[in-house]
Amino acid sequence: MTQKWAPETVVVETARPPRELDAPLNPAVVLSSTFVGTHDLGTDGADAEGIQYGRFGNPTWTPFERALAELERAELPGLVFASGLAAVSAALELVAPGGTVIMPRHCYLGSLSAAKDSAAVGRFDVVTVDIADTDSVQEAVSAAAARHHGTDRAVMLWIESPTNPMLEVADLPALVAHAKGVGALTVVDNTFATPLVQQPLTVGADVVVHSVTKYLAGHSDVVLGAALTSDPALHEALHHHRSIRGAVAGPWEVWLALRGLRTLALRVERSQQNAKELAQRLSAHPGVEVRFPGLATDPGHDRAVAQLKGFGSILCVVLPTSAAAQRATEAVSLWTPATSLGGVESLIERRRRHAHEPHSVPEGLLRLSVGIENVDDLWNDLEHALDTALAAT
Ligand SMILES: *Cc1c(COP(=O)(O)O)cnc(C)c1O
Fold this sequence. Notes:
36% of the residues lie in helices and 13% in strands. The chain is of the alpha/beta class. The strands form two sheets. Strands 1-7-6-5-4-2-3 form a seven-stranded mixed β-sheet, sandwiched between helices. The model has no long low-confidence stretch (mean pLDDT 95). Pyridoxal-5'-phosphate (PLP) binds at residues 83-85, 88, 108, 110-111, 160, 164, 189, 191-192, 211, 213-214, 223, 225. Pyridoxal-5'-phosphate is lined by residues 83-85, 88, 108, 110-111, 160, 164, 189, 191-192, 211, 213-214, 223, 225.
C-alpha cells in the first residue's frame, strides 16, 4: 500500500464514507446479524461475494480494518477480533501441531497463559526467552527449527517490544531477519508501541497483533483486538479462525474504536512527552528506580533510539518493597490504581498483585500508564504518593 499521508493525517482522513451530497462524515453502525443472499457458499460460510452473516463480517468493521492496515502498512485489510486475546489466540493457532512457540519471559500475561494452556494439552511447546538478548533468542529459534526439520509453520517467534512490564527493547530487525532465514514465523504484539512508534510488518514480521482496547481505542471504554498480515495464506487462516471460533467484535465497539483512533497521534504525542518528563523527574527522586527506554541510562535506550519513533508512554518505578509499592497505589488521587494501559487517563499498578507475574519482576515494581493530563498535576500527585509510601518504611 503506498503511503500518501503521514500517520497523523491518516488517522483523521481515513475510513470516511465517499464524498457526495449529504454523505455523512462518519461510517454508520450496522446492527444486523444477517445479510441478504441466495448464492452458493464456501465451506466456512464466508465468501468473496457478500457478508452473509454477522460472524463473517459487518460493514462497520470494514473502514476500521482498512485504517489499521494503512497504519501498519499491511497489504491486506486488518482483522478485528472481540479482544486482544482473541487476536493473540488466533495468531497462536497458526503454529503447526506439535510445533514450538518461542515467547518473551516478560510478556503480556494473557498471551503467555494462552500459549501455556495450549502447551499443557500438547498442542505445541513453549520456550521462554529474554527477548532483549538477541543471541539467545536466535539460538532458541535455530534450535527449534533444527528440531522440526523445516516443517512449514512449525516454529513461531512471538515478539513483544517494549515488553510488559519490564520495557525491554528487542532488536526487531535482527530477530525477524534471523527467524525468516530459518523458516520461522514471526508475530509481533505491537500494543505497547502502536503503529505510530513501530511498524513491524515493514521489517518483515509475518503478523502483527493488537489489543485495540489500549492506545488504538484509547479511552478505556471498549475491549477489542486486531491482527494484521500481508501474507494471503496467513490472512485466510486468521479469517477462517475468526469466522469459525467466533470471537467476533461488536459493531458498537468497532465504531467507538474508530472514533478513538482519530486522536491517536495527538494522544500518543502528549502521553509520550508526559512519560519522558515524569521519567526524568523520577530518576532524580531518592529511594526509587526507574525503567523507561527514553532515559539514556536505560538498557533499552540505544535500541529504542534506533528503532522506535518515541519511547512510549509506559514507565516503571521500583520501590524497595511490595508494601511500599502497595501504599503508593493507595495514596494517589489523580492517578487511578487499575490494570490496563493506553487510555487518556493515567493508571498505576503494582504488578506483582497478579499471581502469575514472573518473579523476575521486582515485588516493588509499579507500572505506570501515562495519560494526557497536565504533567505537573501528574507529578505532584505521584510525588506525594511516593513520599507517603517511602516515609512509612
Ligand atoms: C491488553 C493486552 C493484550 C490483551 O488484550 P485484551 O484486549 O485485554 O484482550 C495483549 N497484549 C498486550 C501487550 C496487552 O497490553
